[in-house]
Design goal:
alpha+beta, three-stranded antiparallel beta sheet, Metal Binding Protein, Guanine Nucleotide Exchange Factor, Chain A, 9 strands, six-stranded antiparallel beta sheet, globular, 29% strand, 136 residues, 2 helices
Length: 136
């Protein structure tokens, strides 16, 4: 699906296209339980795209094991592909990460990642789709 021509489907259509967990995470800012998502422990070469619209978000080159139970990356392919929103839910201040194309909730970013950025994009597997060997 082309990122420029994406038109977000209705809630009913999204519910028919996504699993209940994917819908809850991407549309209601849910969070999958740690160590349960499909990609938390995958380190194959490839690309991680938004499950809703297909926007290319992260590559395996920036993925690392943060020992947190969610897929973690130290940077997005390009910052213009994600948006950042202050999240004050659950009695803490965090930075929510959303897909810039379709506004799907992806996860949160924390300032405790490795070099070169120092960031840890802690993403939900349910918001991602992995494409083996597809880097860009």
């Amino acid at each position: 699906m082309s990122e420029q021509s994406f038109v977000k489907p209705s809630a009913d259509v999204l519910k028919s296209l996504l699993t209940p967990v994917q819908y809850e995470v991407t549309q209601n800012a849910g969070t999958e339980r740690p160590f349960t998502g499909e990609y938390w422990n995958v380190f194959d070469d490839g690309r991680y795209d938004c499950i809703v619209c297909g926007t290319h978000l992260f590559t395996s080159d920036t993925k690392f094991d943060a020992h947190c139970g969610w897929p973690s990356f130290y940077q997005a392919i390009d910052d213009s592909r994600v948006t950042f929103i202050e999240d004050r839910s659950h009695g803490m201040i965090r930075v929510e990460v959303r897909c810039a194309t379709c506004d799907a909730h992806l996860g949160h970013v924390f300032p405790d990642g490795p070099a070169p950025t120092g960031d840890r994009y802690c993403m939900n597997s349910a918001s991602l789709q992995f494409a083996t060997g597809s880097e860009s």
